[in-house]
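Lesson 9: reading folded outputs for more than one chain in a single document. The general rule is that every protein is listed as its sequence immediately followed by its C-alpha cells, and records are never interleaved. Here is the first one.
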Amino acid sequence: MCELFHKFMMGLRDFIKDYFLGFWDYETPKVLVVKNKTLGVIYRGVQFLVITYFIWYVFISQKAYQESETRPESSVYTLMKGTAVHGDDILDTVEYARPSEGGDVISTILRREVTYDQKQGTCAEHFMVANANCTRDSDCVQGEVDFDGHGRRTGRCVQYYNHTFKTCEIQTWCPIEKFAVVKEPALVEAINFTVFIRNSIHFPRFKVLRGNIRNALNKRDIKKYLNKCHYDEEEAPYCPNFRLGYIAAQAREDFGELCKTGGVIGVFINWKCNLDLDPSNCKPTYSFRRLDLRKDQDSSGYYYRFAKYYSREGVESRTLIKAYGIRLDVIVHGHAGKFSPIPTIISTVTAMTSVGICTIICDWIMLTFIDKDEVYSDRKFDEVIREPTVPKVPQFDFIHNYGLNHSDLSDGVPL
C-alpha cells in the first residue's frame, strides 16, 4: 500500500514539474505552405465569409464604427379630434375621449352599456352570482359580502324583480347593472376620428433635438398644414394626425370587432438617426400592434366604468356607464449613432483578429482529415531544445596531447 502511494506521489510530482516547466515554453507559428487545392479553397472561402460578415453586417448594417445612444429623452402629447352623431345627440371629445387631451395614453369610447337612474337601496341579487338563489330567509346570511356579487346581503330572500324565483336581497346601487343595463349601438363614426400625436426626442450625448412635426417658417403655415394633413409614410411623413381606421388597419384589426370588445393598440414611434449625415435626415417611423390578448375572450378587449351623479328630488342618483373602446399606448424608441475613433479601432482589431479563425479551421481539417500518414504533422510541429555545449578540442592540441600521453610504437624503427 505504501509502495503504491509512493508511486502515485512520484507520478504526481513529475506531472506538476512537467506542467510547471512547460508553462514557461514559448510557442510561435511556423509558416508551412501546403500544396493542396481542396484546403486552399476552404481557406479562401472561410476568409471570404469572415471578411464579408464584418464589412457588410458589422460595419455597414450595424455601423460598429459609431458611438451610439439608445436612451434618449422623449415627450408625448396626444389629442383626440372628431364629432359624432349618436341618435339625437352630438358627441364631442369631452364625451368620448379619456382624457380629452393627455400624454402617452389616450382612449376613445366606441360602445356604451348604460344603467340609468341608480339609487342607494335594497334589491335582489343577480341569479348568476354563487349562492344567490334562495327559497327562505335562512338561506341568506346577513352582512355577508360576495366579491363576485353586487353588494352586502341583508338576510332576506326576495322575489327576483318580475320573475317567479327568488334571490338574496342586497344593499347596493339599485337596480343592479346586469338586470337594468341598456346596450347602445356602436359609434361607427369613430372610424374617422383622428388622433394628434406630438413627439419630441432629445439625444443629450450628441445635443440633437428632433420632433415629428414638419418645420415651417411661420406658425400660420404649420396650423394650415396640421388641419388638413393625414399621416402617410411617403407623402406626409411629418404629419402627426392618424385616423383610428388607419391605426386599426395597420394593426391588422377589424374595426367592427373592436367596437364590440374594445382593445389596446400600441403606437410605436421609432427614431433611428445616423448623425454622420445632416440631422434633418432623422425622421420617425411608425408601427402599430395589438397589445392585449385576443385569444382569451374573458379578459381580452378594453373597457372601463364611470358614473354621472346627480340629485333627483333630494336623492342622490347616478347613471352607470360601461364603456368599450380603443386605448392607444404611445411607445417611443430612439437610437442615434455618430462616428467615433474608439469603436472604429475596436471593431477593426476584432475583424483582423477574427480572420485568424480561418487558419485554425484549416489546420484542424488538415490534421484531422487530410494528414492520414502524419506527413503534415511532422513538419507542422517542431520542438527546439537547447542542449549543453561540449567544448571542442583543436586538432593540433589533440595530436600534441596524444604524443605526450602515449608511447610511440615506431621508436627505434628507422623510417
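And here is the second record, again sequence then C-alpha cells.
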Amino acid sequence: MFAARRLLLSCKQGANQAASFLRGRRIQSANYSQSTRQGTTHGRTDLNPLPVGTAQTFSRSRARYAAPALALGFTGFLAFLHYNDERRAVPKGQPSSSNSSGCGCGSNTTVRGPIIGGPFTLMSTQNKVVTEKDLRDKWVLLYFGYSFSPDVGPEQLKMISKAVDKLESNHDKKVLPVFVTLDPVRDTPSHLHAYLKEFDDRILGLTGSASAMRQMAQEYRVYFKKVQEDGDDYLVDTSHNMYLLNPKMEVVRCFGVEYNPGDLSQEVLKEVTSASQ
C-alpha cells in the first residue's frame, strides 16, 4: 500500500515538472512573438534570433521530460489498481474492514449487523412457499449455486453436508443447510429435489421465478451471470456465496470455497456457541 502511494506521488511530481517545463517554453515563445511584432511596428530590427539547432534541442528536451512523465503516470495507474485490490482483499481468518458491501466472500469474514439480506418469497422442492419468516429461530447455512455446476457446486454441497454432520454428531448443534438456485429455469422443484437428494436429505432447496431469484441475489450481494456454451447449453458464472445466518435471519459470517468440512464446522460452532453465552 505504501509503495503504491510513493509511486503515485512520483507520478504527480514527474507530471508537474514536465508541465512546468512546457509552460516555461510556451511563455518564452509568446515573448519572442510579441517582441517580433513590436520590432516590426517600430521599423527596427532588435531581435536576437535563436541559434541554429535550438529548436531541435527544445524538441529533444521536451521528449526527455514527457517520456518519463508518461511512464510514471502509467506505473502510478497500475499501482493504484493494485492498491485498491489489496485494500479490498480480506485474508482468511480476519474480519472485513468494509461496511459498504457486506462480507467479502472468498474469506472467513465476520459481518457486523444486518448489512446484507432481506425478505424473499421462493418455492421449496416440495412446491411449498417459503419466506424468510419460515427460517427464523434457526441457524441457517445459506448457499447460492445451481445444479448444473460441473465442479464447485457439488464440492460445496458435499462440504456442507459433512460439516452439518460434524456439528450434530460431535457437538449436538443443529444448523439448517439451505440451497438457493441461481438457475431457476432448469432447477425446477422436482429437478432440484432429485439433485439435492443425492447429497443430503436435510438440505432445503429453494427456487422460484427469475425475478424473485434476481431480487434475492441482489439483497444478498450474490454475483451471477449466464455464460452461453455450444447450442442451448450454458453455465452460470457465480461467486458461490455461503452465509451463516443467526436465528434472527442476520448474516453473521461468510465463507469462501477454500474451506474444508472440519474448518467450516469449527467456524460455525464458534458463532453458535458465542451467541448462546
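What the second record shows: The two ends are 39 Å apart (CA to CA).
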